Amino acid sequence: MVVEWVASVAAQEHPAHEFEIVDLADFSLPLLDEPDPALFGRYGKEHTVRWAEAVARCDGFVFVTPEYNHSISGALKNALDFLYAEWNNKAAGIVSYGLHGGTRAAEHLRLILAELRVATVRTQVVLSLFDDFTRQVPTEPGAFTPGAHQAKTLAELLDDVIVWSQALRPVRERVQA
Fold it and tell me: Boundaries of each NADPH-dependent FMN reductase-like domain copy (predicted)?
């Protein structure tokens, strides 16, 4: 629900830019199984090559992450660890959600992305399970109904990611040359 909302706002706010939903579930990444560290860029597994191609074709990212036990999910951490150079010198924004808006997951993600040489923008969308999801029954997941201010914040985040991604393009080109 959250990813679809982000994609919808992105398409509406920036029709001249191309956005792609990259869903980890589509890659079926096992627990990190490459024999060499990602830093060396020697990928021997077909799933890693497909994942590397998907990340490499992006100039920037908007990560949508829930918070699990004060951090990101194991699946996201695993996916980040599979690659290195494909992440470098790109920009990212973070949309987090959870009981407290997923802020602790976002902070952990910022630290991981810094190690991968991804510049995270300051603007962040923080979605509360109490305020941005309507629950008919307290023990069941609810419909995603973001507050009106959230779309404005997301638009600002997207602006920042686009500007930073464009600014980092010469760095990416210099490194790839």
Answer: 2-128
| Residue pair 64/101 in contact by the 8 Å Cβ criterion | no
In this structure, what are the phi and psi dihedrals at residue 16, rounded to the nearest 5 degrees?
Answer: -80, -10
Non-local CB neighbours of 177 within 8 Å, separated by 6+ positions? none
pTM greater than the 0.90 cutoff: yes
The domain containing residue 14 runs over which residues?
2-176
C-alpha 49: how far from chain center: 19
- Please tell me the distance from the alpha carbon of residue 35 to that of residue 51, in angstroms, as a whole number: 16
Q: How far is CA 10 from CA 15, 31, 32, in A?
A: 8, 31, 31
Residues in CB range of 113: below 8 A, 6 or more apart: 80, 87, 92, 120
CA separation for the pair 132, 164 (Å, rounded): 28
Residues 124-152 pLDDT 10s:
999 998 889 876 555 565 688 999 999 99
CATH code for the domain in which residue 116 is found: 3.40.50.360
Q: Is 173 exposed, middle or buried (0-12, 13-18, 19+ CB in 10 A)?
A: exposed
Residue 84 CA to residue 126 CA, distance in Å, equals 27
Task: Answer yes or no: are the C-beta atoms of 83 and 126 closer than 8 Å.
Answer: no
In the chain, the number of structural domains is: 1
